[in-house]
Design a protein that fits this description.
This protein is an alpha+beta fold and 174 residues long. The chain has two helices and five strands. It has a three-stranded antiparallel β-sheet, with no helix packed on it. It is elongated and about 145 Å long.
Length: 174
């Protein structure tokens, strides 16, 4: 009977000496050993060789053959000019096409936005001017509510005088 890392239900069978197949207590054929766990880290080269020995052939990882690049004909767009020929990949052609479609769709709304911002600034400046002129008119109105200011304006603009005053007009001789 196997003990340790294997399940206790397995019974050793002399019938199959290789150990690959055994018989359980229920007389069913079962595999004797579980599959070997895979290693987490690959072994370094020559890990399978004992010290002092030279490996016969390198392990599979080191046996890679160097493949030479086979030069395939260029794919894409070929342009021939008097100076020579130029080939452009299809990826570049598609990229340039997409960019040419996206740029106008972004620039048109962007220019509209910039123009509208300029209009908003101009209108805000005009509103500020109107508010300033309204404030000036309010001050003028407040002055005209003062009786002394009205009298002084009647004397200066209209040449009026109060009863009992003598008006004098100075004429410039030049």
């Amino acid at each position: 009977m196997w003990r340790g890392a294997y399940p206790a239900t397995f019974v050793y069978s002399r019938r199959v000496a290789s150990g690959a197949i055994g018989v359980s207590r229920d007389n069913e054929r079962v595999k004797m050993r579980p599959p070997r766990p895979k290693r987490r880290h690959p072994q370094p080269p020559h890990a399978h060789v004992r010290r002092g020995q030279v490996p016969r052939r390198p392990p599979r990882q080191a046996r890679r053959r160097r493949r030479t690049k086979v030069r395939r004909p260029a794919r894409g767009l070929h342009i021939t000019t008097a100076r020579g020929s130029v080939s452009v990949s299809w990826r570049l052609v598609v990229f340039v096409t997409v960019v040419m479609l996206i740029v106008p769709s972004v620039l048109i709304p962007l220019t509209d936005y910039v123009q509208q911002r300029e209009q908003v600034r101009a209108l805000q400046a005009e509103v500020a001017e109107v508010k300033e002129s309204i404030a000036g008119y309010e001050r003028e109105k407040a002055r005209w509510n003062n009786e002394a200011y009205v009298v002084s304006q009647a004397r200066d603009r209209l040449g009026w005088v109060l009863p009992g005053e003598t008006p004098y007009i100075v004429i410039d001789p030049h």
